[in-house]
Amino acid sequence: MSSGAPKGENCLVDMDSKAGDLFSAEDAHPTGTGGTGMLAKLWLPKGLSASVAKEWFDRRRVSIRPWASFVDQRKFSKPRNFGELCQRVVKNVEIYNSNYTFIFLGLILYCIISSPMLLIALAVFAGAFYIIHLKSLESKLVVLGRELNVPHQMSLAGAISLPVFWLAGAGAAVFWVLGATLFVIGSHAAFRQLEGSDFDELLMESV
After folding, report:
1. Residue ranges with strand state E in the chain
2. Are 181 and 107 a contacting pair, CB within 8 Å?
């Protein structure tokens, strides 16, 4: 008696098709940002895609200057006058902007890791935004006659998580990160000597 179940190669084809359906992104998501498979549930709002962040990160990583030269103590000296100080700051920010960016990101990461309450606040914000965005896909969210777009949804999530951020001391953390960043980057840019090779590389990048 034939059971009608797929056998042999037909079974393999059927399994492949199911796997394709599971991870497929070909069928349009209601917002046009994903598919109907399981991975489609992990989509990000338009403009916040992981590919954009990865592309930005890769560009920064490629343009980064060698860290050994960046921290070489032999290339640091006190500027002779205020004019040389300003010139160093301007040129070093142009030359080492990628290095400074990673220093800034590292300080942010350190601040978040060292503050469990800040981690909880960020989790509350991310969860609130995700839930609000999911609700907006099911039906339009309208407040005071206006539909909530992604920036409005992020603002609403921020308002919901604001008490948690306040308890976590987020304001003090922001000022700490900004102060530490200005101190580290400003000190390096002011005392790092300018070299002819740095100018040559900078000119080649601009071309």
Report:
1. 142-143, 146-147
2. yes
Q: What is the pTM of this model?
A: 0.60
Per-residue pLDDT tens over the stretch 101-139: 999 999 999 988 888 888 888 899 889 888 888 877 777
Number of neighbours of residue 157 by Cβ within 10 angstroms: 20
CA distances, 180 to each of 8, 55, 108, 133, 164 (Å):
65, 27, 10, 35, 24
Is the separation of the CB atoms in 132 and 157 below 8 Å?
Answer: yes
Domain extents in the chain: 80-206
Residue 135: name the closest of 157, 168, 102, 164 by CA.
157
Q: Which of 108, 94, 85 is nearest to 203 (CA)?
A: 94
